[in-house]
Amino acid sequence: MTYLLGVDTGGTYTDAVIIDEAADRVIASAKALTSRPDLAIGVGGAIDAAIADAQVDPADIAMVSLSTTLATNALVEGQGGRIALVAIGFGDGELARAGLTDALRGDPVIRLAGGHNHAGGEVAALDLAQLKDALAALDAGITGFAVAASFATRNPAHEIAVRDMIRDATGKPASCSHELSQALGGPKRALTAVLNARLIGMLDRLITACESHLNAVGISARLMVVRGDGALVSADIAREKPIETILSGPAASIAGASWLTGETDALVSDIGGTTTDVCLLRNGRPKIDPQGARVGPFRTMVEAVAMRTTGLGGDSEVHVVDGLDGGLRLGPRRLMPISLAAHQYPDLVHAALDRGLAQDIPASDGGQFIIPLWAEMPVGLDAREQTIAGRLQDGPLRLGHAVQSRMEGPALARLVGRGLVMMAGVTPSDASHMLGLVDAWDKEAAEKALTLFARRRTGAGTRLAASGEALARDIIDQLTAQTVDCLLQAGFAEDDQEWPDPAALAQHPLTKAGLDRHQGVIQMQMSLGVPVIGLGASASTYYGAVGKRLGTRMVLPEHGGVANAIGAVVGQVRMHATGTVTSAGEGAFAVHLPDGPKTYADRDEALGVLEAALRSEAEGLVRASGVEEIRFSVARDISEITVESRAMFIEATLRVEASGRPRIAHGGSD
Question: Which of 63, 73, 201, 505 is 20 to 30 Å from the Cα of 34, by its Cα?
Fold first, then answer.
């Protein structure tokens, strides 16, 4: 017998599913809490439970594939390692574009002269001595580097030289912008490289955790990782380009939704602990975003499914809206639910909540807690960060004990942003526990926390809610409202009408009146014209009300809670290589190759040389991912103008895609 193992690591849960390849059906699934800082605990727990449930021999598992929302969550929440950007040949104005300043979050920038022009010629010499001095001056907290040079897609020589020096001098990973995208647009490529560098350590820890456990239990099959466009890649490629795994979990969920339901036209909405991801399924396939994946505030150059990702999930932070009327808002930051924190640290959480409930006026920290996520004391912290980390050396603390002055608040935010600590507080998961909708963790702690939270005052001076139970219902209602808003925005954005400003339309009074089925002098009705496939562990808890509000059929498939893990093993490997041919004048055609441009006198010869090089590159990538039977497709985009009745060549872009299923191991060997 041959089996496939899919693993998905999300912000709250790690899922594992085993599929019988011959019968094409799920035979077992399991969940374990995603564990930090040691991801191996959660990965191993989910895998072991799925194998035990399926009662299969680990040696009979022929392929393992991993999807994850960790990269997506990190970008939405502003987390990741501390990096340095080496910018070659860029001016200050260019580096301020494309959201690069926000993405850097104050991390250092090393500016070097150099770079190339549109034709691939060197603009200025590269000063590696200056780079060497700048590297020596950096602090020890830098975890990786991003390297971006002007027109590196036309000649990557300066990026390659800088990357090699960084690796030799520091031993730390360096991400080159030309390796992540062949498109023009230096600032946007630099942004993509920055985000990639920030994610490398996180994804490497996850892949290492998975590989280590597979070896420990006797699974020798190849490990694949789901890319953001739904394709599978080898673990080694994913390690080098973790940015390509943003929207990996959502992309896998789309494949899983189609496999589970057979629906061909639907909105797929996947709710996790941190985000809600919405995508349109048309004719059984998701659309690829032509502008590059957008996650949170960042638009990257990474190919991915056209997914709308919102910081809304079962573990979203609950905020009180300023103003006289108060009200609630959820997200975008993920908290550890109080019910889970109490499950893991019962003495600390219950004692603090009991003290809070015994007081007439709630404490300013509102019953929140700080959980350290490091195995060893982190390096590269400033004085205030070190002070907070020192207090947390012996374990979690109440927020008011971990942060003891207003001046320390920004330091805590930086520690959260780097993924070194996590806050615990009231979330929709706690509301669900109090209302009896779920029973996974500590219901009593959820009741105490919600009761305490309900005592907060609105701008009008009244209590936020009459009781903890009333607050819990308000939180669930708010999650429904924000989910409806996500789906309406996606519906307007994907509609054939091409409506302007989908976000504003989703909030428009006429839209709300239509959803209310207003019947007056004006009669109104609005609904989605396609069904919604609800995925995620909590979809069955929340999405019934969502479907009713939107007037559409809600599809909640069996195994929908592990759709990401299912989608991880039903996809194909697809790799592509892209290159350009430019012309500096009649009879001069420059082919832009990784080792620099080469000029040919004949247009067709130049195009042939480029296609052969791209075919070889794409083939090497898919073979490295275990594909033996390869299919190729070639797309040419040739720009020409007519001058005095003669065609004049301007530029050509070629894209070669190679695809196929990875080789399935048999008999316990790869």
Answer: 63
CB neighbour list of residue 523: distance below 8 Å, 6 or more residues apart: none
DSSP letter for each residue of 285-314: EEPB-TT--EETTEE-S---B-EEEES--T
Measuring CA to CA, how many Å separate 669 from each of 7, 279, 302, 552, 627? 20, 37, 33, 48, 15
Place of tokens 């892209």: 578
Q: Is the Cβ–Cβ distance between 63 and 665 less than 8 Å?
A: yes
Please give the full DSSP string across 399-454, using - where no structure is assigned.
HHHH--SGGGHHHHHHHHHTTSEEEEE--HHHHHHHTTS--SS-HHHHHHHHHHHH
Answer yes or no: are the C-beta atoms of 465 and 488 closer than 8 Å: no
Q: What is the mean pLDDT of the chain?
A: 89
pLDDT at position 570 is 81
Q: Which CATH class is domain 82-200?
A: alpha beta
Residues ≥6 apart with Cβ < 8 Å to 601? 587, 588, 589
| pLDDT at residue 420 tops 80 | yes
Radius of gyration, alpha carbons of the chain: 26
d(CA 111, CA 124): 13
Q: Compute CA distances 279 → 388, 537, 554, whole Å.
A: 41, 18, 15
3-state secondary structure string across 63-125: EEEEEECHHHHHHHHCCCCCEEEEEECCCHHHHCCCCHHHHHCCCCEEEECCCECCCCCECCC
CA 443 – CA 465 distance, rounded (Å)? 19
Q: What is the pLDDT of residue 548?
A: 95
Residue 282 has pLDDT above 80, yes or no: yes
Other Cβ atoms within 10 Å of 517 Cβ, number: 12
Q: CA 78, CA 389: separation in Å to the nearest integer? A: 20
**Residue 3, SS3?**
strand
Q: Can you give the residue ranges of every domain in the chain? A: 82-200, 318-475, 573-660
Q: Which two tokens stand for residue 474?
A: 């308000």
Q: What's the first-to-final CA gap in the chain, in angstroms?
A: 15
Phi, psi of 654 (to 5 degrees): -115, 140
User: DSSP states of 54-65 as a string?
Assistant: HT--GGGEEEEE
Question: Burial, 125: exposed, middle or buried (Cβ in 10 Å; 0-12, 13-18, 19+)?
Answer: exposed
Largest CA distance in the chain: 89
Residue with tokens 């996180």: 202
Asked if residues 611 and 653 have their Cβ atoms less than 8 Å apart, the reply is no
Please give the CATH number for the structural domain made up of 573-660. 3.30.110
Q: Is the dihedral of CA 498, 499, 502, 506 positive or negative?
A: negative
Q: Tell me the DSSP string of 519-573.
A: BSSSB-----SS-EEEESTTHHHHHHHHHHHHTSPEE--TTGGGHHHHHHTS--E
Query: Given pLDDT bands bounded at 50, 70 and 90, which one contains residue 669?
Result: very low
**Given a cut of 90, is residue 616 above it in pLDDT?**
yes
d(CA 157, CA 590): 16
